C-alpha cells in the first residue's frame, strides 16, 4: 500500500513542532525540553557526512547524531571501539556544515571520557569548538554521572545513553538486550535518574524491554530516545544506513527499513558500468566540440 508522504509544510502540527514546525532557525535543547512538555514525539537519525545530513535537514529531521556508529557504517571498522576524536571531529564538522536547522549531537568515542570528567570536558569542548556541534552524547548511567555534571556546568548540553552501551561490546561479548529481570531493571532506573540528576537534556535507551522504557519515559522529565526500546519513548533514533536499507547483512530486530538504497545504488553503478563498456556513455549531449 502506498501512503502520502507528509512534508514539514503540509503537517497539521503547530509551528513550534520539532518535526513539521515552520521555524527555520537551528533547534536547541530548549526546543527539545518544550517538546516533552507538549507530549510531542520526534525522530532522530545518525549522519556522517554533509550531503546526507543536508538530505535529512531538508526532510525536517530535527536532531541528528554524528554517531560513533560511523566506525562500522562509514569507516570500515568492526565496531565503534576504534573510533578516534580526530575522526569524530572531522565528520561532525561536515554534518554541521551540511545542515541549517537540525540540532547536531556529537558522540564522544570510546576512550575520550572514561578517564574522568576533565578528559570528558577537554574532548567535548573540542567537538563544540572545532566541529560546532550543539550537544554531545556519552555512554553510561551512574558510572558517567560525574562527566555529565562537569560538561553541563561548563555549558555543554549532554545527551546520555543507557541500556546497551555498544562501546562495551568486548565486556558484553555481543549486543544483548538490557534490563531484563528485576535487578537489571532497577539498575536501569537508577542509571536513567542519575543522568537526569546530572543535568542531561535527553537520554538514549538502547535495547531495553518496551515496558521498562515506558516506565522510564513516564518517570523522567527529560525525553527518552529509544532504539529497540518500544513505542512509548519520547523520540526514536535509528542508524541512517539501517533505516534506508544501505547497511549490508542481517539487521538487528529493532530496525525498520524505509528504502532499499543499497540495491538502488548498486543498480545505478551497474547501469553506468554497462553504458561505459558498451559505449552508450557519454552520448552526444554529454560531449563537447
Ligand atoms: N549499523 C548499525 N546499527 C546500529 O544500530 C548500531 C551500530 N551499527 N553500531 C553500534 C551499535 C551496535 N548496535 C547493535 C548491534 C547489534 C544488535 C543485535 O543484533 N541485537 C539483537 C538482540 C540480541 C538479544 O536478543 O539479546 C537483535 O536481534 O536485535 C543490536 C544493537 C546498535 N548500534
Ligand atoms: C545508535 C545511536 C544511539 C548511537 O549511539 C550511534 O549511532 O553511535
Ligand atoms: Mg554511539
From TrEMBL:
Reaction(s) the record says it catalyses: (6R)-5,10-methylene-5,6,7,8-tetrahydrofolate + 3-methyl-2-oxobutanoate + H2O = 2-dehydropantoate + (6S)-5,6,7,8-tetrahydrofolate
Keywords on record: Cytoplasm, Magnesium, Metal-binding, Pantothenate biosynthesis, Transferase
Active site residues per record: 206 (proton acceptor)
One of the record's GO molecular function terms: 3-methyl-2-oxobutanoate hydroxymethyltransferase activity
Cofactor: Mg(2+)
EC number: 2.1.2.11
The keyword Ribonucleoprotein is annotated on this UniProt entry: no
Polar residues bias: start-end ranges: 8-21
Region (Disordered): 1-21
Principal localisation: cytoplasm
CDD domains reported for this sequence: KPHMT-like
Annotated binding of 3-methyl-2-oxobutanoate, by residue: 68-69, 107, 137
Pathway participation: Cofactor biosynthesis; (R)-pantothenate biosynthesis; (R)-pantoate from 3-methyl-2-oxobutanoate: step 1/2
HAMAP family noted in UniProt: PanB
Quaternary organization: Homodecamer; pentamer of dimers.
Protein name: 3-methyl-2-oxobutanoate hydroxymethyltransferase
Origin species: Streptomyces hesseae
Amino acid at each position: 500500500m502506498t501512503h502520502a508522504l507528509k512534508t514539514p509544510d503540509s503537517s497539521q502540527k503547530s509551528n513550534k513542532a520539532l518535526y513539521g514546525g515552520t521555524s527555520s532557525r537551528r533547534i536547541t535543547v530548549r526546543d527539545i525540553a518544550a517538546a516533552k512538555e507538549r507530549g510531542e514525539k520526534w525522530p532522530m537519525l545518525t549522519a556522517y557526512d554533509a550531503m546526507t545530513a543536508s538530505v535529512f535537514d531538508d526532510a525536517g529531521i530535527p536532531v541528528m547524531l554524528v554517531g560513533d556508529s560511523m566506525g562500522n557504517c562509514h569507516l570500515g571498522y568492526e565496531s565503534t571501539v576504534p573510533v578516534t576524536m580526530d575522526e569524530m571531529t572531522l565528520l561532525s564538522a561536515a554534518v554541521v556544515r551540511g545542515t541549517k536547522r537540525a540540532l547536531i549531537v556529537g558522540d564522544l568515542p570510546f576512550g575520550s571520557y572514561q578517564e574522568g570528567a576533565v578528559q570528558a570536558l577537554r574532548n567535548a569542548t573540542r567537538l563544540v569548538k572545532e566541529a560546532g556541534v550543539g550537544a554531545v552524547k556519552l555512554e553510561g548511567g551512574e558510572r558517567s554521572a560525574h562527566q555529565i555534571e562537569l560538561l553541563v556546568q561548563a555549558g555543554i548540553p549532554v545527551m546520555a545513553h543507557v541500556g546497551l552501551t555498544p562501546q562495551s561490546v568486548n565486556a558484553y561479548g555481543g549486543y544483548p538486550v538490557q534490563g531484563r529481570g528485576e535487578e537489571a531493571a532497577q539498575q536501569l532506573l537508577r542509571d536513567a535518574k542519575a543522568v537526569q540528576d546530572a543535568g542531561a537534556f535527553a537520554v538514549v535507551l538502547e535495547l531495553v524491554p518496551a515496558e521498562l522504557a515506558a516506565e522510564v519515559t513516564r518517570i523522567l522529565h527529560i525525553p527518552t530516545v529509544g532504539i529497540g526500546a518500544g513505542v512509548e519513548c519520547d523520540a526514536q533514533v535509528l542508524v541512517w544506513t539501517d533505516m534506508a536499507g544501505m547497511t549490508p547483512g542481517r539487521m538487528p530486530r529493532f530496525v525498520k527499513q524505509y528504502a532499499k538504497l543499497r540495491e538502488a545504488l548498486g543498480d545505478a553503478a551497474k547501469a553506468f558500468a554497462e553504458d561505459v563498456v558498451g559505449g552508450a556513455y557519454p552520448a552526444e549531449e554529454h560531449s563537447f566540440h
